[in-house]
Amino acid sequence: ANKRIGVIVGSLRKESFNKKIAHFLIEHAPMGYDLAMIEIGQLALYNQDYDEGDSPAAYQPFREALKSLDAVIFVTPEYNRSVPGVLKNAIDVGSRPYGKNCWDGKPAWVISSSISNLSGFGANHHLRQSLVFLNMPTMQQPEVYLANCQNLFDDDGKLSNADTAKFLQQSLEAFIQFTEKVRV
Ligand code: FNR
């Protein structure tokens, strides 16, 4: 069976540049790998009380989806120099109840992008900090920081910058190899 790689985007915006990057990766999945978007916008704000009783209906299918994955790709913008709340919430939901961390051991890749020159560096590295604790072996190189991402797409929202497209495809190939090395 094909290996399953989840793609999680840290922006809910309809025309999100990060979503467009995620779609580019999904369209360029190598043979033997299924890349699929894992939605996070439906997850109610995490509350630790949920771990002792009923939790929001969306939590269980999200956690099951995470458990079924062989690896995870995060594509995120930076909000106020850090991880957008919606993504941090999804990370927290997937990490609990205590002792049932759905992220455990899954190889991860972090891509950040922004409309400025700073390319989401702050979000990229704050996210990596959480992934250490969640025990997700995270690809170190190549690092992917996409600056001025509003200029990378054509009018149809397709990635049109050839250098970026090539870089992303090479980086995806590197991540596939990485997952094969570290997969648990
Ligand atoms: C931003 N943006 C932003 N950009 C950046 O480079 N560093 C930052 O710290 C922030 N902070 C920030 C906070 C909030 C609340 C918003 C809404 C935006 C701008 C951001 O890069 C831009 O909106 C991107 O288009 C967001 O990514 P998506 O939605 O296009 O994927």
UniProtKB/TrEMBL annotation:
<keyword id="KW-0560">Oxidoreductase</keyword>
<dbReference type="InterPro" id="IPR050712">
    <property type="entry name" value="NAD(P)H-dep_reductase"/>
</dbReference>
<feature type="domain" description="NADPH-dependent FMN reductase-like">
    <location>
        <begin position="4"/>
        <end position="148"/>
    </location>
</feature>
<dbReference type="Pfam" id="PF03358">
    <property type="entry name" value="FMN_red"/>
</dbReference>
<protein>
    <submittedName>
        <fullName>NADPH-dependent FMN reductase</fullName>
        <ecNumber>1.-.-.-</ecNumber>
    </submittedName>
</protein>
<dbReference type="GO" id="GO:0016491">
    <property type="term" value="F:oxidoreductase activity"/>
</dbReference>
<dbReference type="InterPro" id="IPR005025">
    <property type="entry name" value="FMN_Rdtase-like_dom"/>
</dbReference>
<dbReference type="InterPro" id="IPR029039">
    <property type="entry name" value="Flavoprotein-like_sf"/>
</dbReference>
